[in-house]
Design brief:
Elements: E1 3-8, H1 13-23, E2 31-38, E3 43-50, H2 53-56, H3 59-64, E4 69-75, E5 90-92, E6 98-106, H4 109-118, H5 128-143, H6 145-159, E7 162-170, E8 174-179, E9 188-194, E10 197-203, H7 207-210, E11 215-219, E12 224-229, E13 234-238, H8 249-254, E14 260-261, E15 264-265, H9 266-284, E16 292-295, H10 301-311, E17 319-321, H11 334-344, E18 345-347, H12 349-352, E19 356-361, H13 368-379, E20 384-389, H14 417-424, E21 428-431, H15 434-441, H16 449-452, H17 462-477
Parallel strand pairs: 16-19, 19-20, 20-21
Antiparallel strand pairs: 1-4, 1-10, 2-3, 2-4, 5-6, 6-7, 7-8, 8-12, 9-10, 9-11, 12-13, 14-15, 17-18
Helix pairs in contact: 5-6, 9-10, 9-15
The chain binds iron/sulfur cluster.
Iron/sulfur cluster (SF4) binds near residues 184, 247, 402 and 450.
Length: about 475
């Protein structure tokens, strides 16, 4: 999972991209980068490295990135190994000079990589984004111009299976943004007036646009490509018409609570999830005796507050987050993840001791965090711990950019609720159900594959993809 941002027509493209990436930092903390172009001179400027946005993109370095159009990315690795070779945006010198940044995952990456190898195309990384760039550039070179750009996007749609949102800077042309045919990964666009001209920007989440004065914000449609030309003209085409399947996990966990996706505020959706769960508890477990509701900070706070309200219980903060520790779920290696969980949350014993606690978390993925939370609460004197997840049991891998690609690593895969309760040490585990997700979102047009096994795309190459990823992780951890 990553955050991407692009801007066209800005006086200070790099500064805007920097601000955009700061608002998207929660989507990936492993590396970041910016590519800009000065359309007057045709010069391209690039900066990228491993590290947080504030570490890599310092003020002095940003000042060196001249140009009025550009793209940026903050990255969490799913296929690449997380080393410097995989840091985005990628850049190709011809035709025209194309920079590309990507959020998502290419399911048939191993096949496409092999195909490029047979065509004697040299790749510099293990990133699926580079493969996508090669396919795009190869087709664009054949036709050039505006039609060439849309034909290159169509070629990507024809060849690449997966969930992806892409932003591209094409040196002599402008900014291009497009979304996979099912619209699995989010991408929004906005516009603003500056010096009598319209500027356009694109971002993984609406907050990165609205905080910079962009208005008329809308999500790109599935299979839609938008080109903001250097001339100020804008072209939009829907090149594919698959069934819409935006990732439901974006509302539940991944996106920041201030964002709006597909017209549905993340905050409102999380409140609805909490209310739905409270109604489920009242309906199915009227005997449940609880003293208070406690959120696992920060994602689950709106759901916990709605749940407490509906159950008529006090909402208490008994777990305090160490603000200097990143989100544990998006750390790429289990060992790093476990160490971070141990540092991440601290209990307030006076709130916890002797109480029956309904603790609310956004989801239970591997069970690492949940187990640790139950242990912390019980170790601080909790009488009973009822663990509530605002997401249904995750039973199947995600092949579209969220980092759980093997069933074996998922605590709910092949286990009953009672077994999960035992495994994490909770007195009860209460899960959201798929109907509740549909109700909270007001639609069934969603990707829910990790909880239903109904994948919106072919998963024919998924096993090969997982194998390749395992090899890369073994490289990082030295287990090969
Ligand atoms: S499989 Fe799950 S996490 Fe992955 S895109 Fe679909 S809903 Fe989102």
């Amino acid at each position: 999972m990553c955050g991407i941002f692009a801007v066209s027509g800005s006086e200070q493209a790099a500064a805007e991209i920097y601000m955009g990436l700061m608002h998207l930092q929660h989507r990936g903390q492993d590396a970041c980068g910016i590519t800009t172009c000065d359309t007057a001179s045709g010069e391209v400027y690039r900066l990228k490295d491993v590290g947080l946005v504030s570490e890599v993109l310092t003020e002095a370095r940003i000042a060196e990135l001249k140009g009025n159009i550009g793209i940026g990315q903050t990255r969490y690795p799913t296929v690449g190994t997380g080393d410097r070779r995989e840091v985005q945006p990628f850049f190709i010198k011809r035709p025209d000079g194309i920079g590309m940044a990507f959020n998502g995952n290419v399911v048939n990456y191993p096949l496409l990589k092999q195909k490029l190898k047979e065509e004697r195309v040299y790749l510099t990384s293990n990133s699926d984004a580079e493969v996508l760039l090669q396919i795009f550039a190869d087709e664009y070179e054949k036709r050039n111009g505006t039609e060439g750009i849309f034909s290159a996007v169509k070629k990507v749609y024809d060849e690449v299976i997966g969930g992806y949102a892409v932003v591209t800077v094409i040196a002599n042309k402008g900014i291009l943004a497009f979304k996979d045919p099912n619209g699995i990964r989010p991408l929004a666009m906005g516009e603003k007036e500056a010096n009598g001209k319209k500027n356009y920007a694109f971002a993984s989440e609406s907050i990165a646009l609205s905080m910079q004065g962009y208005t008329n914000i809308r999500d790109l449609k599935p299979g839609e490509a938008v080109l903001a030309e250097n001339t100020g003209e804008i072209h939009s085409r829907q090149l594919e018409y698959e069934k819409a399947a935006p990732c439901v996990f974006e509302w539940v966990y991944f996106s920041t609570v201030e964002s709006v996706i597909e017209g549905k505020p993340v905050y409102d959706v999380r409140k609805k999830l909490g209310k739905f769960l409270a109604q489920k508890i009242k309906r199915e477990m009227p005997e449940l005796q609880a003293d208070l509701v406690m959120p696992v900070p920060d994602t689950s706070r709106p759901a916990a507050s709605a749940l407490a309200n509906e159950l008529g219980l006090p909402l208490e903060e008994g777990l305090i987050k160490n603000r200097y520790i990143g989100r544990t779920f998006i750390m790429p290696i289990q060992k790093t993840r476990e160490n971070a969980v141990n540092l991440k949350l601290k209990p307030i014993e006076s709130v916890i001791r002797g109480k029956n606690i309904v603790v609310v978390d956004d989801s239970i993925v591997r069970g690492t965090t949940s187990k640790r939370i139950v242990k912390l609460l019980k170790g601080s004197g909790a009488n009973k711990v009822y663990f509530v997840s605002t997401f249904p049991p995750i039973i199947s891998p995600c092949y579209y950019g969220i980092d759980f690609q093997r069933s074996e690593e998922l605590i709910a895969s092949g286990r009953t609720i009672e077994e999960i309760e035992k495994e994490i040490g909770a007195d009860k585990v209460i899960y959201m159900d798929v109907e509740g997700l549909h109700e909270a979102l007001g639609t069934k047009e969603l990707c829910t594959a990790c909880v239903t096994k109904n994948y919106p795309t072919s998963t024919k190459h998924a096993a090969a993809l997982t194998e390749l990823r395992e090899q890369h992780i073994a490289q990082i951890t030295g287990k090969c």
